[in-house]
Amino acid sequence: MSFTPDHIDVCHRLAAERRRAGAPTWAMTIDIGSILADVREATQDDPDDDTVRATAKRIADLVRTKIPPTWLDVTSADYDRELDELVEEFGDLGDPDDVDTLLDAFYDWADFKRVWTGGSGAHEPNEEALTGMAP
Length: 135
Hints:
Order of helices and strands: HEHHHHE
Helix content: 40-55%
Number of strands: 2
């Protein structure tokens, strides 16, 4: 993830704009964190290449089920080229060593689109922050 000052500033501004508009901080949830946690636990944090590829495909499949189909439809005004490319790369991961770079790119996309990607800890949103949905 890009935790540069500019990235953090933009994401905080987007969240503040949503709150001022009466919308939840997060527009939607795509919980890839649970998938990654399951794989880490099952493989004792040492997945083989086939597991990495299968996990990347699970992420692509999950994203496709959670977003409006128009975001991946090149003929739609809602088309999101960056997301489409990420989903394609997850779904057809060649080199398992590329998965970390791909995950970083997905997390950056999610930050800017205000998509909660799952996980636990201090940054986990409450139920109120997870309601609603916007492109």
